[in-house]
Amino acid sequence: MKLGDEIAGYRIVSEPTNANGGKCMWAFAEKGGGQFFLKRFLEPKRPREGSTASAASQRIRLEVCQEFEDRHRGLMKRLRPGARGGGNLVLATDFFHEGSTYYKVTDRIDTSSLEKPQSLEPRQKAVLLKTLALSLQLLHDIDVVHGDLKPLNVLIQKREAAAFYSAKLIDFDDSYLSGRPPGRQDVAGDSLYGAPEWRRYVQEDESVSPEHLTTAVDVFALGLMTHYYLTGSLPGHSTRFGSPADAVNAGESLTLDARLSDSMQGLIRAMTSLDPRNRPRMATYLRALKDPEVCALVHRRPGTSAGTKPKTPTPAGTPGTGAASAGPTPADGSAARVSRIRANWGRSASAAAKPVTEPVPPPASPHVPAPAPPGAEESRRDGEGSASTSTPTSASTSASTSAKRSRVRINLGDRRKP
């Protein structure tokens, strides 16, 4: 297949390439004025006419080819382009072989250049994910597993004058009926988006049989893709594992972006469960998307969750909280901070406004211990060894019993010595 070739009436109008094609070559083609996408399968190959291979070898190859044809034609019968709700499924319009090679044809889809779906507004993201989920729901309702769900197989389109982007689901070449996948050596998929049971199946794990590969395989991949479309990256996991599925198989929880809403985190965790039976169906997924805000990213402070306002730390020197505060309550609702300076203003309000003029009596003993360290008096204030109770009574002190005591506290030691 090369530029300018004509194959079954389809004229190749672009250079064939294998880019993201797996075991296929592809190119754009024209036929009858229509634009198409033409895929050439590299295998299986039908026996050529005049082949010198043994009859047994040719019979085996024909059996493989017949199984390949039956699977593709069977899916084409189930996935009809005109099916209700199938507008976002890019389905095959033709399937044939020419010589020993098989070809499949679909309509050509003009896609947008949207490189960062995570930059869309929540409502735009919700609509994009809905169109993808509706396509998967249509497949799952007829027991079809896409089998290779990943961003490369989703074309994002925005028609002229349209308000929203839509997801076009393509490439059903690796699809199969739920519980009836190809053999372990033949089943296709992408290890990065593959489900845990699919990984074990291709790794020859005998505990996983074909019936374990159901539509839940697609749900796991959609969970990873949802995280990617909303945040721009896949869920994280230990570098010891080569894929999210390997991490989940080892019992490790995937690390989700903290900006995702709590509802979305719960949904993605359910979709990426180890047990396929615990993954939600498409109807549940679509119900979750009814509120576009579930797709919004929440910029949280560390240690907070969605719906919980982070606590603002109180800077040093600003009002704080205190049960003993007698001051007014600030406008933000926090209580005023209690001063660390304790002052005894006496019992009289008039005395409280009166300046202190009386000197403190001098100590009677020359052996006065050093003053207590700052704060020591605060811990035992008023009731323990104050100057007014440990010094002898004098005329000057008697006259001032009703006056305000000094704010200065002096430890005069034991003055009751003979």
Protein architecture, described:
- The chain contains 11 helices and 10 strands.
- The chain is globular.
- The protein has helices at residues 55-78, 122-141, 196-202, 216-231, 244-249, 262-271, 282-288, 349-352, 376-379, 387-390, 395-399, and strands at 6-7, 10-12, 24-31, 34-41, 92-98, 101-107, 144-145, 154-157, 166-169, 176-177.
- The strands form 3 sheets. It has a 6-stranded antiparallel beta sheet with strand order 1-2-3-4-6-5, with helices on one face.
- Helix 2 (122-141) packs antiparallel against helix 4 (216-231) and helix 4 packs antiparallel against helix 6 (262-271).
- The model is unreliable at 306-403 (pLDDT under 50).
- It starts with 5 loop residues before the first strand and ends in a 19-residue tail after the last helix.
- The chain is α+β, with helices and mostly antiparallel strands.
List keywords for this structure.
418 residues, alpha+beta, 6-stranded antiparallel sheet, two-stranded antiparallel sheet, 11% strand
Low-confidence runs of at least 5 consecutive residues: 306-403
Kindly, what is the distance between the CA atoms of the first and last residues, rounded to a whole number of angstroms? Answer: 122 Å
Mean pLDDT: 79
Q: Helical segment tally?
A: 11
Q: The biggest beta sheet, please? A: 6 strands, antiparallel
Percent of residues in beta strands?
A: 5-15%
| Helix proportion range | 25-40%
How are helices and strands ordered from N to C? EEEEHEEHEEEEHHHHHHHHH
Cα Rg: 40 Å
**Any idea what the shape is?**
globular
How is the largest sheet built, in terms of strand order? Answer: 1-2-3-4-6-5
Q: Please give the oligomerization state of what you see.
A: single chain
Number of DSSP-assigned strands: 10
The computed structural class is: alpha+beta
